[in-house]
Design goal:
Strand 4 and strand 5 form a beta hairpin. This protein is about 0% helix and about 50% strand. The protein is an all-beta fold. The protein starts with a strand and ends with a strand.
Length: about 120
């Protein structure tokens, strides 16, 4: 499986962006996917996760502002980000859980396939 993320860019505070992550290869048995981010000088952190069935989990920093969704027919996961803040500035990574991961797991080690990041910069 390969993951290709896109949609990052420069946006003013309060603005919106939608990130997309397309999975290719043997995707039929990939259940949990999601988004992580890493800001300069900080550890990578989970933003939101979603199962093939549509169950989601979001970090407190994302709740009420970010929405994760998934189109299984397109093998694509989205992250709609609204009301962006400067502290959202980071490289955002798409990730896939290991084959057989049955449900959302908050252990980052359970996500074994990573795409290249896409830069999100929130600045006026």
């Amino acid at each position: 499986v390969q993951l290709q993320a896109s949609g990052g860019g420069l946006v003013q505070p309060g603005g919106s962006l939608r990130l997309s992550c397309i999975a290719s290869g043997s995707t039929s048995d990939i259940n949990v996917m999601g988004w992580y981010r890493q800001a300069p000088g900080k550890q990578r952190e989970m933003v939101a996760l979603i199962t093939r069935g549509g169950s989601t989990f979001s970090a407190d920093s994302a709740k009420g502002r970010f929405t994760i969704s998934r189109d299984n027919t397109l093998n694509t996961v989205y992250l709609q980000m609204n009301s962006l803040k400067p502290e959202d500035t980071a490289v955002y990574y798409c990730a896939s859980g290991y084959r057989g991961l049955a449900s959302i797991d908050l252990n980052q080690n359970s996500y074994t396939i990573w795409g290249r990041g896409t830069q999100v910069t929130v600045s006026s």
